[in-house]
Design a protein that fits this description.
about 475 residues, alpha+beta, OB fold (Dihydrolipoamide Acetyltransferase, E2P), elongated, disordered C terminus
Length: about 475
């Protein structure tokens, strides 16, 4: 019975589900047509609204096409004598460097505290001093020998004076003897004098002649001895001077004011005359060496202003700082710098006005005036197109002009021909630049905008 009740309940549920499914399908068939009709109505309304908007819009105003006008910067060409500047590089060297060696050998007894690499020493400052004991003894000995030689010379000169006096006296005696012999010979004929007495007087004359001859020989010998002693005195005088100089040279002094680049000394060290104790260079006499190419040297050599004596600028860049020094080209190197492909030039630097002293070995930039280009025009490099043409402005339009480039100077170009004096040149590098393109100078714009610039040649010496 219970089973029958359950079966009946299940059958009722199945009948109820079938009725609900039929109701949902009925509603679905009614909703779909309604949605379609509504969508069509909306589309139709939107179409009608769009047509009304299109029909009521105002007619567009037709504008005439206008040619583009480019704002540009310009410059006025002026012919002048232009002096371009070469940007070169070189190295600083000391014009005067010396290796200091002791002039005498011996033990170093004192060293100047300032004799250190990098320190500056003044001219005449004593750098090292060598033990002077031996040299003081040598000087005393030389002076003693010289005094002895001078005493011997004085003795010889006294002997010479005595011999001269005795020679004069002997000559008087021989004259008297000769006169007595003449009288005796005259008295022999009268019998007053015997022949024996005459012979005795002849012997006296002969003896006195021998005495005179001996005195003369003695005088010759004394004269020779005097010359010998004089030579000895000269030699000993030089010995004294040498000893005095050696005694002075025990102190090695700085030959000029400069910077010590190296030193190798210490107290107690024995040094000889071939030992280098220090190297010194003159910091007030520095040079800059740089190389000109063959083309650059040829151009400058053909200029009216000579290369020697030309003033240049030396710039030493140290980190973020840059220091400038005046210099003058002093000479050309003795040999061609074949490895560097040019001519080596030497300039003398004037470091007096610079706040920082240069040092040998510094790598520097140099500004060297090139040759003078007479009656030429200087323009910015931005005005040059394709390396051979510029644009001038005529009645607000561009006109292409072929030009002859003479030289480049930094950001400028020097023209030898192609542009007339006073013409207005386009300096803005315009991509659309061509014949007939309209442009407007920035000069006519509001204040504060870049205006027209004048391009002129720099006179000689401005570079």
């Amino acid at each position: 019975m219970l089973k029958s009740f359950r079966e009946r309940a299940d059958e009722d549920q199945q009948d109820t589900g079938q009725d609900d499914g039929r109701s949902a399908r009925s509603l679905r068939w009614i909703r779909v047509p309604v949605q379609f009709v509504l969508m069509v109505a909306i589309l139709a309304g939107a179409y009608m609204a769009m047509n009304r908007i299109i029909a009521t819009r105002p007619e567009p105003v037709q504008r005439q096409p206008r040619q583009t006008v480019y704002p540009v910067e310009t410059a006025t060409a002026r012919r002048a004598d232009n002096h371009p500047v070469l940007k070169l590089y070189g190295e600083v060297q000391a014009a005067h460097t010396v290796e200091l060696r002791p002039l005498v050998s011996g033990e170093i007894v004192s060293v100047n505290p300032g004799l250190k690499a990098g320190d500056r020493v003044e001219k005449g400052a004593t750098l090292i001093e060598i033990d002077s004991f031996g040299y003081r003894g040598a000087l005393s000995e030389a002076r003693a020998n010289l005094a002895k030689a001078r005493a011997s010379l004085a003795e010889t000169e006294a002997n010479i004076n005595s011999e001269r006096d005795q020679l004069a006296e002997a000559q008087v005696q021989i004259e008297l003897a000769k006169m007595d012999l003449v009288r005796a010979e005259a008295l022999v004929d009268s019998g007053t004098m015997t022949q024996k007495q005459v012979e005795a007087r002849r012997l006296i004359v002969s003896q006195r002649e021998q005495a005179v001859s001996q005195r003369r020989n003695n005088l010759i010998i004394d004269d020779a001895r005097r010359e010998q002693q004089q030579a000895t005195i000269d030699s000993l005088s030089w010995k004294v001077e040498e000893a005095e100089r050696n005694l002075q040279d025990v102190a090695l002094k700085a030959p000029f004011s400069g910077i010590v680049s190296s030193e190798n000394v210490e107290a107690g060290r024995y040094v000889g005359v071939s030992d280098v104790v220090a190297t010194l260079y003159e910091d007030e006499n520095l040079e800059a060496r740089f190389t000109l190419t063959d083309a650059q040297y040829g151009r400058i050599s053909a200029d009216t202003e000579p290369l020697i004596g030309r003033r240049i600028v030396v710039r030493w860049v140290v980190g973020a700082q840059s220091y400038e020094y005046d210099a003058v080209i002093d000479r050309i190197a003795a040999e061609i710098a074949s490895r560097r492909g040019g001519i080596e030039v030497v300039a003398r630097i004037d470091p007096s006005a610079a706040p920082v002293r240069l040092r040998p070995g510094a790598f520097v930039e140099l500004e060297v005036p090139d040759r003078t280009y007479s009656d030429s025009i200087r323009i910015p490099e931005t005005a040059l197109y394709d390396g051979q043409a510029v644009f001038v402005i005529e009645d607000g339009r561009l006109s292409r002009r072929p030009v002859v480039v003479a030289a480049y100077d930094g950001d400028d170009v020097i023209l030898a021909g192609g542009i007339e004096d006073g013409e207005t040149i386009l300096t803005t590098h315009l991509t659309q630049a061509d014949d007939g393109v309209r442009v407007k100078s920035m000069e006519s714009q509001a204040p504060g905008s870049p205006g027209k610039t004048r391009v002129e040649g720099r006179r000689n010496g401005d570079g």
